[in-house]
Amino acid sequence: MIVQRFVLTPFQQNTRIVACEETLKAICIDPGEESTELVDFIRDQELDLQAIALTHGHLDHVGGTAALHKQFPAAEIILHKGDESLYYGLPQQPLAMGIQPGQLAALGFDYEDPPKLTRNWIDGEIFEVGKLRFRVLHCPGHTPGHVVLAEQTEKVVFVGDCLFLGSIGRTDLPGGSSEQLMDSIESKIVALGDEFKVYSGHGPETTVGDERTTNPFLTGAYQIGKGRYF
Ligand SMILES: [Fe+2]
Q1: Is the CB of residue 31 less than 8 Å from the CB of residue 7?
Q2: Ligand 1 mean position to 11 CA, how many Å?
Q3: How many angstroms separate the alpha carbon of residue 22 from the centre of ligand 1?
Q4: Closest CA to 191 of 209, 179, 217
Q5: From ligand 1's centre to the CA of 171, what distance in Å?
Q6: Per-residue pLDDT tens digits for 13-40
Q7: How many whole angstroms from 23 Cα to the centroid of ligand 1?
């Protein structure tokens, strides 16, 4: 499996190209913004971009969809139904964050309307990319329609903004829920097994085992709304 990371946007978001080494079929998980480096990598490696695979609808994960889709118009664009309103409301997202209209262009947040989704993720579906088989797991909490993509043979999971090294996704944005997020992490991500490598939407890679045993949100050292316990 090929995994190439591009750190994009003022949010230092991890955009990734993930490809099957044998067939060169590829997906882009969460194109954060327009990037010639990203497009050049796909072309230089002669990858067949099959889909733009979105974990959730926040601007720093979908902001590059329109630009990437113009370069590879045959690629599917897939997102869970629960995040459709976030996705189609992309031009309004920065305003909802309190960014002033006059600052949008300077920050790279002057988005056009995003291209139409080609379909929605279905919880539990197997999504094939060449010989890679991703199980799609609905993990609400950070957003209502967040999904993670778990590859069972390679034992890797792309978790978007559910889980980070030493932390978890924020739940204070519209549609967020701490209870749902903790349930998603425990029942869908931790349940995969300690050996799974975790690719997060921000920051470095980790493993399920490392997070299960050291992440204060998972060990019980920190309880949401109650503070830190030792
Ligand atoms: Fe997010």
Answers
A1: no
A2: 10
A3: 32
A4: 209
A5: 9
A6: 999 999 999 999 999 999 999 999 999 9
A7: 31
